[in-house]
Design a protein that fits this description.
single chain; mainly beta; 49% strand; globular
């Protein structure tokens, strides 16, 4: 399933893995940028008490599996930007 056909607003709590299968973290919330009703990226928290988060742009998402609640990325986790 394509990431653009999937509603990113309902991905809170999904597990995110990079192209090598390594866990990046869990989706904390969608991030809105250009349009107020369509998210452009996801905020991903790497640990339970982690303060740092990563920005996962919608273009970096390869597939979303709703049955297992896992999001697969096209890029490595080192290629994702970090923010507070």
């Amino acid at each position: 399933m394509s990431a653009f056909a999937y509603d990113l607003r309902s991905t809170r709590g999904y597990l995110v893995a990079d192209n090598r299968g390594r866990v990046v973290g869990r989706v904390e919330c969608p991030m809105y940028g250009t349009a107020p009703d369509k998210p452009d990226a996801l905020a991903v928290r790497s640990g339970f008490f982690a303060r740092r988060r990563r920005v996962v742009p919608a273009e970096a998402i390869d597939q979303i599996d709703g049955a297992t609640r896992v999001i697969g990325l096209r890029v490595e986790r080192e290629g994702l930007r970090r923010f507070l």
